[in-house]
Amino acid sequence: MEVHDHAILVVEDERPLLEAVHLKLEKMGFEVVTARSVEQAEGYVRDGVKIDAIWLDHYLFGKETGLDFVAHLKSDEKTKHIPIFVVSNTASQEKQQSYMRLGAVKYYVKSDHRLDAIIGDIKSFLANPDHE
Amino acid sequence: MNRNDIIPDLHESDIDALLRALDKSVLASLTDARGDILYVNDKFVQVSKYSREELMGQNHRILKSGKQPQAMFVEMWKTISSGNIWRGEIQNRAKDGSYYWVDTTIAPIIGNGGKPERYVSIRILITERKRTEDELRAQNVELGDTKLAMLNVLEDVEEEKTRAQSLMKDLEKFKLAVDSANDQVIITDENGTVLYANPAAERITGFTIPGILGKKAGSRDLWGGLMPKGFYEQMWHTIKTEKKVFAGEIKNKRKNGEEYYAKGNISPVLGANGEVEFFVAIEHDATEEKNIDKAKTEFVSLASHQLRTPLSAINWYAEMLIAGDAGSINEEQKKYLEEIYKGNQRMVDLVNALLNVSRIDLGTFQIEPEPTDVAKLLQDVIGEQKFALDARRITLSSNVQSDMPQLNADTKLFRMVFQNLLSNACKYTPVGGSVRMELKTKKKGDSYESLTLNEDSFCFSIMDSGYGIPAAQKNKIFSKLFRADNVRSMDTDGTGLGLYIVKSIIEHSGGKIWFTSEENKGTTFFFILPASGMTKKEGVRALGS
Known about the structure:
The complex is a heterodimer.
Chain A: E1 7-11, H1 15-27, E2 31-35, H2 38-46, E3 53-56, H3 66-74, E4 84-88, H4 93-102, E5 106-109, H5 115-127
Helix pairs in contact in A: 3-4
Chain B: H1 12-25, E1 27-32, E2 37-40, H2 42-48, H3 52-55, H4 70-81, E3 86-93, E4 99-110, E5 116-125, H5 127-179, E6 184-189, E7 194-197, H6 199-205, H7 209-212, H8 229-241, E8 246-253, E9 259-270, E10 276-285, H9 287-322, H10 331-362, E11 365-366, E12 370-372, H11 374-391, E13 395-400, E14 407-409, H12 411-427, E15 434-442, E16 447-448, E17 451-452, E18 457-464, H13 485-488, H14 498-508, E19 512-518, E20 522-530, E21 541-542
Parallel strand pairs in B: 11-21, 13-15
Antiparallel strand pairs in B: 1-2, 1-5, 3-4, 4-5, 6-7, 6-10, 8-9, 9-10, 12-14, 15-18, 16-17, 18-20, 19-20
Helix pairs in contact in B: 9-10, 10-14, 11-12, 12-14
């Protein structure tokens, strides 16, 4: 039996989407922690919650965006190794480039991808972190 | 008593006295009936310049000047020979050839036979008077001419004045128009030194009109200097060297430092010798337009983001239901759910397409060229479409030139072009049909289909055996949301925006797209792109998905 004990932090402000992602991740064998704002997400990080990967939206509750969150994580020795998958509905080239420059693993436009496809990618990445 | 009778018994002394008096003032002479001179007084001698001896016995006609009409003399003789006094002005000739005028009175002396025996003449020298009269006459004529000339001149002046006034009125109108124009109007000499600036220039640039006059228009210490050097060089080359109108958008700065966008044109005004005399620059502040455009772009982005959120929710929940994540489902439930999922996918495609269209319309989309293996890209796209092609049992063949070079292309956009053309070919071909694609390069001067290529080009064609496009609707094929009548009733999905987007991509990349078609036979789409590749286009957003 494969042990999928990876924990994913999902940061998404839209409730129905957050729930769908949560459900599917669990179905596909992940532990899930959810947050709806950067502040909330950083709280978990500070508290030392186990996080193996992050599913991150761009527009969130509160003042900061997903981009700010990535910047914080990547500037901290303790967190800069955590792979970040950006899943957003803004399709701008600029934003995409900004995320990739900061070190995100991949950028998805939400409505263009199946849940299981995105999660499949995360799974593959965690199983073989050097392949991308 | 008849005054013509000179009483014979007049005393000599009376006659002497008379003659002496006459000597002072008049030329007096006495002739016989034939006109031969019997007596002349001293004055006569003096004026005629003949001596008395030369004159005596001569006929008076030796003094004739020849300048008077004979008719006068004829009339004179007639008058005096019939016993009447004649008076007239005669021009005579002196011995030295000079001329003199005399006011002449000739009175006949009637003899006993009732006929003139002698003639006495009294002549008053009027040469001076005559000269004066002539001068006066000449002066009068001259005055008359001068008066006429002056009247003519006055008339001309009046005309000119009227014309000038009318011109002034027109000019005033024009000046009023330019002064009250909303757009900035600046007129410079051939070196760009400002000769005139209208109030709008002041309003837009923040510099006062006196502060602008005499300076070089758009110089760094005025509102210019923000564009790259090449921009200004290009501008000067167009207006000064090529003597053509330059139109464009330029970023300037107001006096207070605020940057703004101006749109306008600069026109050279040529003199009679074909050289530039002035430049007229008209600009309007495009800041408002830019802001509106920016707002539109942001609105569209926001709208599409907002639209995508519920679509994602439907997508994912339908996906999970179909996958049985909420419990197993029966075939019928699966069918319904799949319809929901498909419908939702169409919406997602539509939102993506609308977003692209708005970016095209606003000109805000980017083109980011990079070396692209177009042959491989085509194969990828074919791979993606394979499922749809097989489902309709469509035979696909592709003929790709073997040594296909790379093309500097925006991969994302190029993929969209291939995807769209291939999916259309598949959609609009009946089951069992065929689609044939060809990709090759051609050289400048070669012909491709009906065109002669004016540069080295990438050439692509895709031919289907499908429904074709009705002739009457061919000109609408590239328009937004258009679907031809012959396929509208069919079960095809799609956004109706694909070809509009494809045409925009091709044309913004410097290429050309066209098609040939026959109803119920098939359609072939062609496009060419310069081998030099797509030009990089700065934009705000990339066209996506």
